[in-house]
Design a protein that fits this description.
4 copies of one chain form a homotetramer. Chain A has 5 helices and 3 strands; from the N terminus they run H-E-H-H-E-E-H-H. Chain A is mainly alpha-helical. A 3-stranded antiparallel sheet of chain A has the order 1-3-2. In chain A, helix 1 crosses helix 3 and helix 2 packs across helix 3. Chains in contact: A-B, A-D, B-C, C-D. Chain B binds a DNA duplex through helix 3.
DNA sequence: GTGGTCTAGACCACC
DNA sequence: GTGGTCTAGACCACA
């Protein structure tokens, strides 16, 4: 992870967890790396990781056991899917349609890029 | 224009011009509203408009005639299309594919949303 | 003439006259094109040409006969040479030396570029 | 720094950094003073420094670490040299040759001035 | 603490 | 009238 992106670092880290959950690498009640471990691993300020964890906790994707650590919440997969899907349909997709219209790109053409990308 | 978006105002104004050019409302050598006029029209500080204009000038979408004003550059359409297409293919599209994979959405499904949106 | 330069247009026009005088294309008491003619020829606002003429008049490079027009002043060549030489030695040259030092370029190397340029 | 020059302040500050890099006072990955520090040091508005930093960032002379600050980019020396050399050869030098031709100055004469200057 | 954006208002050179 | 630069000061998100 490089964090060169315009997106804030704490959100990029959050996406990292979303991904792990959506591909089922991380499952309900799995332990999450401690703030300090994560900060060292990512070469990032612990405050930044802390912020990610609080953000994920607000979304009920992880939960905290005081003095023990953070864990993946029950039904994290469903929640993550719902959150990301909502985001996709209400934000990404409309923008996507607007852009391809403006650029005169056909949806059919998109598929080609998909295969090229692979 | 409302500027409720998270994107910075000066970039939203830039996109406003990109759009005008891509739908061919503005054509080569058309005069662009003066910094002050634009600022009044958008209810925005002149400095903000200035920033947009310098940004567009760097991208060679507009050019300046000393003491007279800004004008749409030659081949602005081609340049705008190239810039936005590059952005779309190298940034938006990979992210798009990654997201739909994660969310288990098929490209075919996307088309339905398109029609619903219309 | 294109006036794309960062230098102001009226000074670029002034330089045009300096050059004519220094290569002796224009000589003492030659008539200078009228403000309007010049403005049309250069596709420039008459005010801009006017400013050039006033500037050259201040430097006593041209003089005005009321109702008749502008003319090259006596000894314009000597004056032009003196002005430009002063400018060169006190402004251009020090900057020139500073730059070649910074870029680690030897004066001897400069000669090569001269020949390449020709 | 005095900023008496006709050049804009933010570009003079940029040149200040170019110089530091070209004389190797500043090296790759060195931290650059924060916008606020620099503004205080130069007795200049933070916005002005900000503008310099963004200008240098576009030229890839410095880069930003989010929330931490600006740093000298990798190979900043090479880039700075290339930029300034390009400027010198394509802009300063042709003008230089034109001027000395007009003024009937020989390149050999230039060397004398160099020694007088020192 | 860091950068980033924006406003308000001023001043300047130039056309 | 035009753009261009700068100041002063504010507010925000982020690390």
């Amino acid at each position: 992870m490089d964090f060169n992106d315009k997106k804030s670092i704490f959100l990029q880290i959050a996406d990292f967890f979303y991904e792990k959950i959506l591909v089922k690498t991380m499952k309900d009640n799995d332990r999450v790396a401690s703030v300090r471990e994560m900060a060292v691993a990512l070469e990032v300020n612990p405050n930044t990781v802390m912020r990610t964890y609080q953000y994920l906790q607000e979304q009920q994707i992880i939960y905290n056991k005081r003095g023990i650590g953070y864990f993946i919440a029950e039904q994290a997969y469903d929640k993550a899917l719902a959150i990301k899907k909502e985001e996709f349909i209400n934000h990404d997709l409309p923008e996507f349609f607007k852009t391809i219209d403006l650029l005169n790109i056909n949806i059919e053409d998109i598929k080609k890029y998909k295969h090229e990308n692979k």
